[in-house]
Amino acid sequence: MNMLKLSWKYLVAKPLNTGLNILLLALGLAIITVLILVQDQFENKMTRDAEGIDLVVGAKGSPLQLILSSIYHIDFPTGNIELEDAVSVSKNRLIKNVIPLGMGDNYQGYRIVGTNHDYLDLYNVGFQEGVAWEKPFEVVLGNDVAKKLGLKAGDEFVGSHGIGSSSHEHDEHPYFVTGVLALQDNVVDKLILTSIESVWYTHDEEHDHQKIEAPVSTSGFPETDEDRQVTSLLIQYRNPIAAVQLPRLINSRSALQAASPSFEISRLFELLGVGVKLIQGLAIVIIVIAGLGIFIALFNSLKERKYDLAVMRTLGASRGQLFFHIVLEGIILTFLGALVGIAIGHLFLTVLVMQNEQGAIGGLTAAVFLKEELWIVVYAIAVGIVASLIPAWTAYQTDIAKQLTKS
Amino acid sequence: MVTAKNIDFYYDTKTRFEIPDIIMKPGEQLLILGKSGSGKTTILNILGGLLKPFSGEVKIENTSIYELSGAKLDKFRGRNIGIVFQRPHILAPLTVEENLGLANYFANEKGKQNETLLKELGIYEKRKSKVHTLSEGEAQRVSIARAMANSPKLILADEPTASLDDENAEVVVKLLQQQAGKFQAALIIVTHDQRIKNHISNQIIIGGGS
């Protein structure tokens, strides 16, 4: 027998009360855990995906939507822009590099993005197998796509029109997989990459076989004399002056808009921040109520236990030991609450991610443990100590003789 | 050796308790008889180190217990004084065995004789049971075992038979005497229960001498 076991026995003697207190605290802490996990990974992921991209140019509309659709591939594109406009913008001397994107198709919900080899360089991708595309209708699969769809180099599939899972299929031309990327741990994992030409030709009514056999452009814009469109452009600045001049210049053109990822993302976090604060507030309220619950439970149980405490004193327990006995109960309760809470948080996030594989939080994982989670345990134990101080003090002051003479 | 000398205590000045001096050798037994309200339990509390008298001295094995401070007195009590109450007051969340173990823990004792104790008191079969499964008589025997768990020098029993039937009352008194004899402990029973009178010849009557 020792103090820990003694406190534990008293808690187990009231399983419902103990369980309820642990669960309530765990609920509050689970919310905090999910917030911490999501916030940390979401911000990391957002910054990582946007690295190297200074500006996104696309059709007029919501700048946030343009960023979300072109960098993170979660929202719908704002529309297309004329290739002619795109080319003329890209000639600006403030621009170091332009990567054109052409979107509009998907396969089983995974977006098919037309671009050039610069996009692969932007994210520094490595290949798990195969090579990059060289001809129209050749594609490279992101790691998650290959894994989930069970495709490998040499396989073929038919894309469907639209960004989400599917309307009609483009059955004339199947895509041919030339390579699968190594796991990048960023947005590329969930994309099917191909040339701009592939995207153009799928939507053409008639097919020119000569064109389809010709190699595609691997950098810059494809050469064409037809009226063609692209969805958006990812731009890298040549120097800091560009950040001041270029957006204004592009936005003054009627057909185009320029959006800065860093600006839009901080705006997005600001918008989300209100919601996050609200949920945080709710979690704190739940934790405070849980703390109160523990306080009330300990205080009430003390009334029934005064005799027990007096008996312990006659058996040789000191006042300090009784104080510790009660505080220990608070600590055990909150420590378990913290563990259960963290477990629930991770479980909840796992389920959330599983149900949203292709969505905005699809790239998150619940299988990481952050330093902040240790703080959750520390805070929880602090709640336990605070909640048990007054009951413990009452136990400390129990007058044995008086208590034993009663009844 | 247990001595209590010149003890003075009162709750209000009008009703002072007459507390006789007590001197007991190891293995001696004493019955303190008195009506309820005569101060029997108060004497017991003072002897047990639970209630500090206004003046006087309680000595157990050459230790003047009220000169010990706080936690030291608690530890001394745990090691040297076993107390049996009218109601058993077994700690309900713990098993019979664990109740004894807790007494050992608070007194920093090993509790080697626990098993023998439980066997001698006839509750060894119930060692894994919780208190609510025990009969009144069994529960009282558990509380005696707990009081003996650290081989005390002084055993105090406060109305140990009051809530028991004749048969159990006799068993409990005999067990108390037996165990006290085994440890060579001084045994003091305070009671108004006339059934005990015949068992212990050494008697003090307090509070108007009925």
Order of helices and strands of chain B: EEEHEEHEHHHEHEE
Proportion of helical residues of chain B: 25-40%
What's the story with the biggest beta sheet of chain A?
11 strands, mixed
Summarize the main sheet of chain B: 5 strands, parallel
Structural class of chain A: alpha+beta
Mean pLDDT of chain A: 88
Tell me what portion of residues of chain A adopts beta-strand conformation.
Answer: 15-25%
Number of helices of chain A: 13
The span between the termini of chain A is 28 Å
Q: Ranges of chain B with pLDDT <50 over ≥5 residues?
A: none
The helix-strand sequence of chain A is: HHEHEHEEHEEHEEEEHHEEHEHHHH
Number of strands of chain A: 13
* Radius of gyration of chain B, whole Å: 17 Å
- Overall shape of chain A: elongated
Structure in words:
- The complex is a heterodimer of chains A (407) and B (210).
- With 407 residues, chain A is α+β, with helices and mostly antiparallel strands.
- Chain A is 55% helix and 15% strand.
- In chain A, strands 1, 3, 4, 5, 6, 7, 8, 9, 10, 12 and 13 form an 11-stranded mixed β-sheet that branches. Chain A has a two-stranded antiparallel ribbon with strand order 2-11.
- In chain A, strand 3 and strand 4 (110-115) form a beta hairpin.
- In chain A, helix 1 (3-12) crosses helix 11.
- The model of chain A has no long low-confidence stretch (mean pLDDT 88).
- In chain B, helix 6 (166-183) links the parallel strand 7 (154-158) and strand 8 (186-191).
- In chain B, helix 3 (96-106) packs parallel to helix 5.
- In chain B, 32% of the residues lie in helices and 20% in strands.
- Chain B has helices at 40-47, 70-80, 96-106, 114-120, 136-148, 166-183, and strands at residues 2-8, 22-24, 29-33, 55-60, 63-64, 81-84, 154-158, 186-191, 203-205.
- Chain B is globular, with a radius of gyration of 17 Å.
- Chain B is an alpha/beta fold.
- A 5-stranded parallel β-sheet of chain B has the order 6-7-8-3-9, sandwiched between helices. A 4-stranded antiparallel β-sheet of chain B has the order 2-1-4-5, with no helix packed on it.
